[in-house]
Each structure stands twice: as structure tokens, then as C-alpha cells.
Amino acid sequence: MLVNRIGKIMKLGALTLLLSSCHSATQSKQFTPVPYFDNGDGTVTDIQTNLTWQRCSVGQLWTEETCIGEPTFFTWDDAMQQAKDGWRLPTVDELDTLVLCSNGQRTPSVRPNGKFARETNGKCPGSNPLPTINRWAFPNTPTIWYWSSSSYAEDSGVAWVVGFGNGNVYNNSKFNDYHVRLVSTGH
Length: 187
Known about the structure:
This protein has 187 residues and is α+β, with helices and mostly antiparallel strands. The chain has helices at 2-24, 76-80, 92-96; strands at residues 36-38, 43-46, 52-54, 61-62, 67-68, 145-152, 155-163, 169-173, 183-184. Helix content is 18%, strand content 20%.
């Protein structure tokens, strides 16, 4: 089992290197996609954070090759109810790790004292292919906002969201409808 997993990781390393070299001629040389291990069951494990992610947004279906269908929209309370069987809504910091600015540039993504600051909203400046997420690991991801489990420090009726249109991390009313991607630390 371990030998098989190492072999897959080595293959993935070659894929990551291939992706980097494909973009190096047209993109910044800082482009480095986060390596993911394909678990072969519709999930990937981020090798850097050891978090396991569902490849499809809630409402989509994994076909062994891609995600099909339309993701479901949820209010924050309904999004929190999607957590079951070891899966949960990610924190804003966990969800933020999925943002990939292919040009290698990103404004810092920091929430000082749990508050929004435009200068540290995590935006991918310039030209980036959409969505701003690893499209191999998370195919057919919409560019709209995704809920995190993190409430906003100054208002319990607001939660943090991450947008894969430009990498922004923002806060919005928990009554808005956004997408969900689930994460696990134990799968």
C-alpha cells in the first residue's frame, strides 16, 4: 500500500513538474502548483497540509475523471449541515490554501484580528486562468464564492468566503447562497 502511494506521489510530482514547465514560457517562473495525491475515490490529499478534500463541490458528481452537474447553493447554516461522516466545512484558512494564482503572484491573504482588510484580501492580480484553483485536483469549480466555517469577528451574522474567480477572501451575510467544498483530516 505504501509503495503504491509513493509511486502515485512520484507520478504526481512528474505531473506537477510538467504543469510547471508548460506554464513557465507564458507565466511567471514562480508558478508552483500545490501537489495533491489522488486517493482514487473522488478525493485528493494536499501533501503540504495533509488535508483531504472532496474533488467536487457539493451537488456535483465525481465520474472517475471529472465533476459533472451543477453545485448546490447553500446559506451558511445549510452549508454547516453538509458536514457528516468525518467531512466538514473548512475554516477560512484551510479553504484559502486552495487558491492558485497561476501567474505566481497573490496579495497577502491575512485577516488581522479576524477582520477584513482590502490590502490583504488574497486577490490574484493580473491575468490568471479561471478558476483560481488547481483545475486538475478540482475540475469544473465555479468562480463564485465558497463558504468557510469561520464566522466574522465583528458580526456573528457574517462568515468568511473564498472566491475562485480571483482568489479573494471576503466576508458576507450568512443568509447569502454560496457553494460548498468539504474537507477532512481523517480520511
